[in-house]
Every structure is written in structure tokens, then in C-alpha cells.
Amino acid sequence: MVTKISKTIQNIQQYSQSFNDIEDLNGLIQEASKAKYILLGEATHGTAEFYTIRVEVSKKLIKDHGFTFIAVEGDWPSCFEVNQYVKGHSNYSHAREVLSQFQRWPTWMWANEEIIPLIEWLRAYNLDKKEEDKVGFYGIDVYSLWESMETIVTYLQKINSPDLDKAMQAITCFHPYNKRPEQYGMSAAFLGESCREEVLELLNSIVSKRKQYMEEDRESYLNLQINGLVSKNAEAYYKAMITDDTESWNIRDHHMVEALEFISQFYGKDAKGIVWEHNTHIGDARATGMEQEGLVNVGQITKEKFGAENVYAVGFGTYEGTVIAAEKWGDPYKIMDIPAAQHNSWEEQLHRAGSFNKYLTFTEDNRHLFNQTIGHRAIGVIYEPAYEHYGNYVPSNISERYDGFIYVDRSKAVTPIATDSEG
What we know:
Layout (H helix, E strand, L loop, with lengths): L1 H14 L1 E2 L7 H7 L4 E4 L7 H18 L3 E4 L3 H11 L8 H5 L16 H11 L9 E4 L5 H14 L5 H11 L6 H11 L4 H13 L1 H7 L1 H26 L1 H23 L5 E4 L2 H4 L15 H9 L4 E15 L8 E5 L7 H7 L5 E4 L11 E5 L15 E5 H4 L2 E8 L12
Helix pairs in contact: 3-6, 7-8, 7-12, 8-10, 9-12, 10-12, 11-12, 12-13
């Protein structure tokens, strides 16, 4: 065992490259840019460097390699407000204002200072572009059931659509649950009282009138279409959440890929997308213990659906530092310490290979050198540093899980923007 660990560290030293700024990452960016979809991960939802590095990598991919949109692990309605801002169709005067409208906990994932430079850069980049050439920013998560329904109703009212009655029937069905997904899930799972029929009827009607809606406004139709998709899949997600964690996880990740497909179709055959999500979503589930639990994820689904050659997944990790997280779901966030990584974990071996920032690209020549199963740290929005060794390490075959890896030796917490719901 000692020999294997020592050999892994030697391999890291031989094949990794140190980096201090974005130019030092050009080797990884060049490799990644050959794909149609680049999946940029994060080991936590509250580390500043994961955001700032993804910002700079994304800018390079857009400017130098023609990538056309960014899709993130965020709610569609709130992210669409950002999309409108970067495309010059918004009343907001600054990125901080548009990010402040992220109200669903955990707000800090997108309402943070680190992402502001990207939003302002996208707005400036799009300024002199034709509408069809503007780079978009979208959220592909599944949680925004009520917000998506309300957006649908508002838009259908605005254009006096014949589908408004169906939308009103669907949203009225959800009213008794007071925007509390657990109440709806309990009712649907145990009492058989669901709103699925109403939601499906609405979505089918929207899809059947695609040509009519497209004539009104192509991106407004994309907005309508995906809000309808969210309504359908969120209904299924919240029902499954009560009885089957595996099914609810899989519904969520299948939804994110489905939304990604709709966005790609909107941008046409030359579309190239950048996806920002947690490592647990973008790193191929087949290379982890997730597979034995019946779990799939975005990394696996995209490679199976679009071809492995068209998807490039980049994992992120850190040895120690600070992070924004909460002790319980819905609690106020706080800055927490990330302790030194567990002995012999992937992060700890990266640290022992040299206590500096570095990256690896996994190729045909070296992939086999990193394919042993090893503990790999994952921190979510809920975190207890004192107990992380008991539940925050995912057994992973790193070079099969990712195509590249970016390592930050010592990291710091993101800086949240105060919102109405959490300050």
C-alpha cells in the first residue's frame, strides 16, 4: 500500500502542472475546448477559488473557443433574470442587483461577489453582438416549481395565450400546499393527490404550439418551455423525495441534462456549452460508489447521450481552508474551517506532491496511472467539519471520473451578497 501511494504521488509530480493565473491553465483549456460540453465542477458550494477559476476559464472558452452559453446548478427563473441582464434586456443596472434577487436558500451559491465579474464581462461581451450571437446564462436545476409556474402564468397572460386556462388550473392545483414542497410530496406520495395531470396537459399544449410561440419570441419560448419542464420534473422530484432518495436524485440529474438539451437546440447545431455544478454531478457516477447505489448523474448521462468525446469533465478540490456552508438545511450560512484532508485521500496526496496549486489532464498515456479507487472529498451546503471524515469522502476512480482536475492547496470562502431572505 505504501508503494502504491508513493507511486501515485510520483505520478502527480510527473504529470501535473502548477498554476498561478489563467494563462497557466492553457494546457487544460486547450484539451477541454475540443469537446461540445465542458463540465466544470466544485468540491464545495462555497469556495471562492472554485468560482473565480471557473469565471476565468469560462471567459477564455467563450472568447477564444466559441462557447455559446453557460448552464449552472441554479434555478431557471432567477438565472433567466441574469441571462436577460447579460443580453441587455433588463432594468437592473448592475450585476449585484440582479444577483440579489436569488431568494431560495442557499442564496450564497449565486448571490456572491466572486461571480459578479463574469456577469459584467458577459454583458460587455454581448454588447455589440447580434441577438443570435449573444452568450447566455441559464439555470438547469429542478427546484423552482412555484416560481416556474408563476412565470408561465405571467407570460401567458401577457401574450393572451389560449393556454392560460391550463396554466391557471395547474397553479391552482398547487395552491393548497403553500409553496412547501414537503407538503406536496407527502400528499402526492401517500394520499395520491397530485397535480401531475394538470402539469402534463399544460406542457403538452405548450409543446404542440411550438411554432406559434416561436413566432412571438424564440427565447421567450425557451423560457416558457423550460419552466414547463421544471414544473413537470419538479412535481415528480418532490413526490419521489419523500419515499426514494435514489429516484429523486436521478430525476434531478436527468432533468438537468434535458434542460441542457433544450438550451443547445435553441443555440443550434454549433452550440457549445459550459456547465457549472458540484463534482458529485459532473464527475461520472460510474467511477464512484454512486453506481452501486443505483445513482446516475450529469457526467454519466451526458457522456452516454452525447458521446464521451463530446464531454470534458473537470473536477476541483482543495486541501484545507475556509468555506461558506450551514449546519442544517435552511439555517443561516457561516464561514467554516475546512480541515486538512484525510490521510491518503486524493486531496492529501495532491498536497504531499507539492503544497501549491496544480492541475492534471488525464489522457490515453497517463489515465491508467490514476485509476485506483481513492477517497475524494465532497462538501455540500450542509457541513460539519468535525465529522467530515465519516461522510464527506466519495470512493472514486479519479481518472475515470474526470478528464481533468484543478487543485487549490489552500482555499477561502466565497463572499455572499446580502439578499432579502438572508443577509
